[in-house]
Amino acid sequence: MSDFSFAMLPGIETEEMLWLQELTKGYSSENKQRFLAVYQSRRKDPQTILICSLIGFLGPAGIQRFLLNQIAMGIIYLITLGFCFIGTIIDAVNYRKMTWEFNKKEALASAALLGI
């Protein structure tokens, strides 16, 4: 398996791809495939997080927080209308950073789950 497989992930940026390559550089081809399968099922696409943030202006705020497993913050956003839309604006601006932090944790969790 080549490192090109990471480039096939939707919405992946260069920083994330380089980080994944570094994380998996000692893995065998089979282990990389297993890691990619687990990681791909857990990973969130940055565009999805952006769209969910923007939905907070028209409907329920905080959907993006629920997707990023920040349940308490999602409930607070629902109750406060996204902190009167200020939090929703901030999330819409910082969606890439929020998604990258989530995906980084999920990559480490996926590697730990596989024990490699």
Automatic annotation (TrEMBL):
GO terms for cellular component: membrane. The chain crosses the membrane at residues 49-68, 74-95. Residues 49-93 form the TM2 domain. It is a multi-pass membrane protein. Keywords: Membrane, Transmembrane, Transmembrane helix. It comes from Chitinophaga eiseniae. It holds the Pfam family TM2. It is found in: Membrane. It comes from the Bacteria. This is TM2 domain-containing protein.
